[in-house]
Each structure stands twice: as structure tokens, then as C-alpha cells.
Amino acid sequence: MAASNLLIYLDGKIVPESEAKISVLDHGLLYGDGVFEGIRIYNGRVFRLTEHLVRIYESAKSICMTIPMSFEELEQATLQTVAANGLREGYIRLVITRGGGPLGLNPYQCPKASVIIIATSITLYAADKYTNGLTMVTCATRRPSPAALSPQVKSLNYLNNVMAKIEAIQGGGEEGVMLNEQGYVAECTGDNLFIIKNGEVFTPPISSGALDGITRRAAMDLLKEMGIPVHEVMMTRHDIFVAEECFLTGTAAEVIAAVVLDRRSIGNGKPGPITTKLVEKFKALANSTGTAVTY
Ligand code: PXG
Predict the structure, then answer these.
(1) Nearest CA to ligand 1 atom 24
(2) Correct CATH for 3-120 of 3.30.470.10, 3.30.70.20, 3.40.50.1000, 3.40.50.970
(3) What is the pTM of this model?
(4) Among the options 154, 270, 281, 283, which is catalytic?
(5) Residue 151 CB less than 6 A away from ligand 1
(6) Distance (Å) from CA 102 to ligand 1 centroid
């Protein structure tokens, strides 16, 4: 692998990537036992940092994992890692693994969780997709049932979503629509989904199995400011097929139009006016708010 100049936060120290190593006995690797967050940096500020930190502590609490740092310490470590890398635009990956321990599922045998902070860049879709919109494919792989694991836990086990992404790519698309066990639309593989019909906006409720996305919340706030009603309702693929516009939201994806689902054009097959306006508003918000980094 090519050497990088990345500086990584690992358990209290900021070290070069080549020195940022964790044990092969870490239960994050062995069992997907851990949690993560993806956060964006815009214009030297970390967007919605508090909301992301609240969510990672909630994910950890839900899986009985103690993050071995206070909220304020994790916040400072995140900001310091961004500053150490001199990043003014980019992406932060917080990863908390269960830590090393003997083989066997029992997490109580892992004395201490490990904290990893990576600050770098991420490109989910090619630049032209932000102009022309994404092609989506419905995936056979369903969102995990809440009876298996709460869809709100951003755990290190993202295999369902990886499988869905494979299906989307094999099906000739960039993004996959994931349904819940009942067949209602939940979200995409790493993004929340919205449609526009008769000038109003609709998105699956959290109870559909969608992640309570932080970009989703920001988009809903902006739409309300724009005077556009937003409804959280169960929807089927049919509702997407007959929508006027469709867009996706996510920290990595930002706000992006989706123009095809299962080879049917959505609306006229081009990013629509409400989506285009929302993309502008989101950029303005992201570039003017957030926790300032001290470089
Ligand atoms: N749904 C799922 C299943 C996600 O994992 C989102 C929606 C969007 O939520 P936010 O809060 O980001 O608006 C996510 C977000 C990565 C990566 O590689 C992370 C996500 C999705 C795709 C890639 O860091 N998580």
C-alpha cells in the first residue's frame, strides 16, 4: 500500500498512519464489535459535531460499550486530529472498537475499547453524478430488522449494506434502495431517501428502519425554512417511480439527486428544481456553521 501522510489519533496519541496499528485480536475486527461515525469538515468547521458525538455515545451505550473518554475529550481529540492534518475540507471517521481480548464473543473479556480517529477525504460518487443525478437499483438485501439489531446502531458490522451496494453496482447503478422486512422503502446503502410529489416532500420515517441521519435532519430543517412541507411516511418503490424528484442525503453523499430507479426515470430524469435549490441551501449552511477548528 502506498504510504500516506495521514496522522491518526489512536488511544490518546496522534501518530503517522504507518504506526496506527491495532491488534488482530481486536473484537472490532473479529466480530464487527464496535461503533463508528462519519463527520464532514467544511471551510475549517466540523459540521454538526455535537449531534455526531451524541449519536456515537448512544450507539456505544446500546451495545454496552464504554467509550474510554468523556464527551469533551472525544470532541477535543476529533478537533485536534483535524488540525494536525491541516484539513479545511474533508471527512472524519470516528471508530470505537471493543478492543483486544481472547477469542470468543464475550465482550466483558475485552478490558478497554480503542478509539481511532481518521481525518481525510471521501468521494462516494463521481463529480458528474452531482450534476446529473444517480442511478438507483432496488436491492434484494433488506435493512436489518430491529428484531435483529436496532438500525440506529452505527455498528462496525455493515455487511448488509455492503451486500446491498454490491447489488446496486452489479445492477448498473451507483446506489441501492434498501427495503425493510415488510417491503417498504427504508433508505439507501449509506444515505437517507426523499421524494417530491405535488411540490411536497416525503421521506420514510425512522420506524421504517432508516437511520436517523444527521444530514436528513438538516435537509428537513432547510425544507421547512423554504416553506416546503415535509412528511415522514411509509413508501413503496411505486411512490419513487411516480415521484417528481428524488434526492438522497448523507454525511458522505451530502445532498444529491437520484434520477433513475430500476430503469425507470424519476420525473423527467434530471435533477429537479427543489432538489437543486436544497443542494445550494445545504452548501451554504455547511459552509457557514459548525465547530471551528483551531489550526
Ligand atoms: N443511512 C445509513 C445506513 C448510514 O450509515 C446515513 C444513512 C446517512 O446519515 P448521516 O447522519 O451521515 O446523514 C448513513 C451514514 C462512510 C459512510 O464510509 C458512512 C455512512 C454512510 C456511507 C458511508 O463513512 N453513514
Answers:
(1) 38
(2) 3.30.470.10
(3) 0.97
(4) 154
(5) no
(6) 31
